[in-house]
Amino acid sequence: MLTVNDLCKRYSSGVWKKSYTQAVAHVSFHIEKGKVLGIVGESGSGKSTIAQCITRLVEPSSGEIIFRGEEITRMKAGKLNKYRRNMQMIFQDPDSALDPKMTISESLEEALKLNQCHYSAEERKRKTDELIALVGLNAEHKNRYPHQLSGGQNQRVVLARALSFDPELLIADEPTASLDVSVQAQILTLLKTIQREKELTMLLISHDMEIVRRVCDEVIVMYRGEAVEKGRVESVFGNPQHVYTRLLLDCNEENVKKWIDYKKEKGKRGNKNEE
Ligand SMILES: Nc1ncnc2c1ncn2[C@@H]1O[C@H](COP(=O)(O)OP(=O)(O)OP(=O)(O)O)[C@@H](O)[C@H]1O
């Protein structure tokens, strides 16, 4: 489905005195159809740059990106737009991804108008209702504006918009990072359920090893622009070879413990996990 070969991205900045950042250095991987690949690493390790190169939001400095058998790094704008519809991205902050002046159903109908132009107005309405149900929202949310929904509910709408394109590849860049811990779990479960049902190929970017462990089939560990370790999640997590992977796993055990304590505490107080 997607093959990345020897991808490099070097940013330059400064006008008089140029400085360079090697954001991604010689990264290669392959994702099979219907599988989920996780990219983990600390802040600044190059995770988002890889996603932006794949969608050509930034131009790679060198390397190959082959999507459904076609090399896309040199693809011209017209053809590229067609390809981009097949690869949708969702980001950390759902609020900034939605138009504050549109209700949820308007937002979804607009997306359908853009990418499924053969639909009649009636079909768009029906499809909108289907998408709303698919992401676990209900009719009462339809006529609300983004500020009238919670962060988790807005992230569901963002996911519904992305799915309205019927993408083959979904790139989720820290999709739960801005959400409350209890809501994070719900959104991750939803993502995984939809990914399985639709056999979506997914690239999940996260700095959280536990999220990757729960959702992904394979993982790449990024450190300062390089992929220092990659493989099946159970083998990388069960038998990490690189010292940096071990460090990340240790850090995250702390987070997992905090999460378990938080859930226990919440359970004691009798709170339900609500958005
Ligand atoms: N437009 C840009 N111009 C110059 N340098 C950039 C630009 N975008 C990113 N960088 C640099 O490239 C490196 C990789 O950034 P990137 O955003 O890909 O990392 P990341 O792992 O996704 O980080 P985070 O988890 O914080 O989002 C960083 O050192 C960053 O400062």
Topology:
Layout: E1 2-13, E2 19-31, E3 36-40, H1 47-54, E4 62-67, E5 70-71, H2 77-85, E6 87-90, H3 94-97, H4 104-115, H5 121-134, H6 139-142, H7 151-163, E7 169-173, H8 181-198, E8 201-206, H9 209-215, E9 218-223, E10 226-232, H10 233-238, H11 243-268
Parallel strand pairs: 3-8, 3-9, 6-7, 7-8
Antiparallel strand pairs: 1-2, 1-4, 4-5, 9-10
Helix pairs in contact: 4-5, 7-8
This protein binds adenosine-5'-triphosphate.
Organism: Blautia celeris
Family: Belongs to the ABC transporter superfamily.
Protein name: ABC transporter ATP-binding protein
Q: What brief labels describe this structure?
A:
single chain, 275 residues, alpha/beta, Rossmann fold, 2 domains, 6-stranded mixed sheet, 11 helices, binds adenosine-5'-triphosphate, ABC transporter ATP-binding protein, ABC_transp_ATP-bind
